[in-house]
Write a structure and sequence with these properties.
Length: 669
Amino acid sequence: MTDATTTKPRKRSWRTWLVAFAGLAVCAAILAVILLPRILQSPIGTQRILDVLGPMTAPGKITVERFRFDWNRPVVMEGFRLHDQDGTVVITSDEVQLSRTLWQIIKDPNDMGTLSFRKAVMNIRREADGKINLIRALGKLIDPKAEKDFAIVIADSQLTVHSPEMPEPFVSHDADVEIDLPKAPKPLGFSLTASGEGARKVKFSLAARGQIQRWTDKSVDIVAEFDRWPFVGSGMGLAATAWVTGRIHVTEGPKSYHIVPDIRADLQWQDSEDLPKLLTAIDRFRFRSDLRASYEPTVNVTFADTKLGLPGLDIGLKGSASDLTGESAAVDVGGEVKVDPAKIGEILAQSDMGKVRFAMTPVTFQASGPVDKKALNRMKASMATRVSGIDLDGIQVGDIALDMKWQDGKVAIAPIDTTVNDGRLFVEPTVEMTEDAMPARVRLGPNTTLTRLSLSPLISEKVMVYPAPALASATKVDGFISARILDGVIPVTDRKTELSLKGDLAFEDVRFGPGPWLLNLTQSVGLPPPPTFSLDQPVQFEIVKDRVIQHGLSVPIGQLTRLDFSGSVTFDQKLDLLVEVPVTPTLLQNVALFRSFLGTEVFKIPIRGTIGQPEVDQNSFDANMKQLGENLKNRAVDTSLDMLFNGILGGRVPRFIPGSGRAEPPPQP
């Protein structure tokens, strides 16, 4: 009895403990389920989760101030920051939501859900090497080979984009970004829409969408559309900002791509005040093409149906470029340029070059060979066209055949032999190249000549007023001129070199009626103007940048004296001249006693203003006249002729009156 009694309580004790343990386990499990969200969102749990995410975002980094987990609600991250490889914040958001609940994550860890941002701030930067900080910061989260469903949605957020080709960052306050990374075999998809204002209050926008088939050879289908997207480009010493609008469609891949761009842009040249108006008139362009590019091991490009439209020019191009990233880069391109004479004439008129009319055959061109400057002697290129019916604001120029060839590292231009009105023009240019094979400048040598061009009021007014300003507004002009270029440099891409021409000008039987300001000039110094003026002395001229400088222009005033001109006229007809009138015996009433010392003194009349409105520098003129009077008076005293000098000369040198057309008469004795 005793044994039986003692055995039963032991059995009940074991069962009790078993039930109690099971109950405790159930309670612990229930407690763990209840407490798991709190454990995960604790500081320790937060750090453990970030440690797990770290390798997935390398070289970027994610920091979160606090997680919020719930079995039945989406995961929330507070104080979210995504840093790039340099530690700079790429995306920041006060609150980010993952569409998955804690229970869904545990049940199906291969479905990572959608990470949603609202009112986020994104700072995207593309480096000069093409790398984008956002892509690098997301790391394996957007690995094209990842086999987990994942998506990122960024809505109604601020986007700032920095890129080397942009003059200012793109800033949008309504950007939407979606990145969809489904499991195979579905393609990766993405979209971006954003609009905003630049620092100059220029509104521009960008929209891109596409798919990347990660599991097939034909892997890309991307469309990018943009409106007034800013782009900065430079080359050949020039720089401009283009506001680009258009569309680019990219297909195929992954090692070869079919690219179809259709782009138009408005241009704004930098340093436009220092550039010729003819260049800045190119204020827009349109580019369309059908490109095929491949890489591996090197980049090769072929292009067909390529069109570049500029004001007055339509350029058609086709060809190929090979080994662009290798050591044997080469091109084989050709095409033609169609010219719109009416539009070019309009541009030239806006560039202050007057009315220009002409006809022109399409410019054909071809180039092939290596593009490495060390092998340029193997490059071959040619260009040809013919210009006819040339009318330069009333000046007729004969047909011009342009034929240029580049071979053996040298550029040869066929001599130009044509007519200007009834004169003969012969030009033999040579092209000087830069070290990097750009046409730096065109040089004109002593074989460049103009022979026996007949003068007319039109040629005098449009051309001859620069080396011979005395012909301004001249009437009844006749005779011939011939000119020779001794040395000339016309810059093409070398902005450090200024336009420079040196030459001489010869007059043959030139007679003309004076214009108003030449007539005024002769009268103002008390000279009776002859009915007809003549020119017979050669003139040396030099063009430097925008200024024509001349020496030697001399206009005889009968047997009395002459007007000797020196100085310059700018292309916009501003004057900086000095007219010297020698004091001759006949000028001072041909007094015989003065012959021993006259002929060495001159009136000096400095003239400023413009061809249309010349003005005398009165202060300089008065100082010159005072000095002249002192010189003559001192000489008269030295020869004991002081009284005679005062009696004859006193008050007889008239004062020049600008614009009056007459001289102030000397006082009567």
